[in-house]
Amino acid sequence: MFCSAIRNILRNSQNAAFTSQIRNLRGEQSTKHEISVLASPSTSIKADDKKKEPAEHEGSNKVALDFGNREAHVPSFNLAAYVNNSSTLQQLISLGVDLHSIERRKGLGDFVLKLDFEKNVKPFITFLVDQGISPDDFGRMFTKNPLLFKEDLDDLQTRVDYLKSKRFSAEARQRIFTHNPYWLMFSTRRVDRRLGYFQKEFKLSGHDLRLLATREPNAITYNMEHLRKSVFTLKEEMGFNAKELSALVVRKPRLLMISPDDLVERFSYVHQDMGLPHTQIVQCPELLASREFRLRERHEFLKLLGRAQYDPQKDLYISPKTIVEGNNFYFIRNVAKSDLETFDLFLKTR
């Protein structure tokens, strides 16, 4: 049996590695008494305060409407202590709102506590229902962006009408608002500039632009400096031409939100170690969206089994896309055609 032979090889390799580790450990113990460790005094570093920049500034170093820096804030009060006496908080909880997540962001806990459900919340629920948003999505939307309750309803309707004028379908608008609640806080002028940037930069048709925005609504409102760095990385450092870049971002717009350094690392492994050309990577952009260690782990296992064959013109072809699909059990059974025991032994001897 082929898998049995592989397991025997792996076990022998594992035993040899273990013996080597024992020898090294004995050597360390024999010289341990000759080594003295000096503990260096700890040093505390105080970070400089960062000045806030205008939200409308396109070149901002911060992600638009990003509250990530506030997550470390320790709340001065606990919203749970007010629930019994606040019908608004009770109603928000019934909608699925995570009060603990809100109170961890500076100022939002106090803001939510002062809301009146009938005056400040219910009108927005009615508005969202009119847009076809499912009540099941309210909790996640309000948890992520409770500042939506500060917006003017007429402005929100104007922003919805703008998307209608750009031929975004009702289903597309619903997906945009539920996956990126911050979108509704962007003025129509600002959204128009963002959509214009994507259309011009990637030479997209109206259909492809709508497809990109619907697949990854967060990309449209993402930090512009980061987006420009990602585009530079894909074009100049990875060598994708204009046509390939356009197809790549439409199929997987989330790539633009990944750290450029991570993109380069993944591309280097896929292109050089796995031997995939640019055209094949464009067809399987999921490869660049997967972590490098996962790609390496699965490719090396297929290589061990003699199944790392990604040329569709040859026998035993394996689609590169299947390498990053599913969990390990799915990969082992359906792609590698092996078993868990062999895969576990492989991981232990890497």
From TrEMBL:
Source organism, top-level taxon: Eukaryota
Keyword Cytoplasm: no
UniProt-recorded Gene Ontology molecular function terms: large ribosomal subunit rRNA binding
Pfam families (UniProt xref): mTERF (PF02536)
Alphabetical keyword list: Mitochondrion, Transcription, Transcription regulation, Transit peptide
Family statement drawn from the similarity comment of this UniProt entry: Belongs to the mTERF family.
Biological process annotations from GO: mitochondrial large ribosomal subunit assembly; mitochondrial transcription; regulation of mitochondrial transcription
Protein name: Transcription termination factor 3, mitochondrial
Stored InterPro entries: MTERF, MTERF_sf
Name of the encoding gene: Dyak\GE22739
Region (Disordered): 40-61
Species of the source: Drosophila yakuba (Fruit fly)
Compositionally biased spans, kind Basic and acidic residues: 46-60
Subcellular localization: Mitochondrion
One GO cellular component term noted in the UniProt record for this chain: mitochondrial matrix
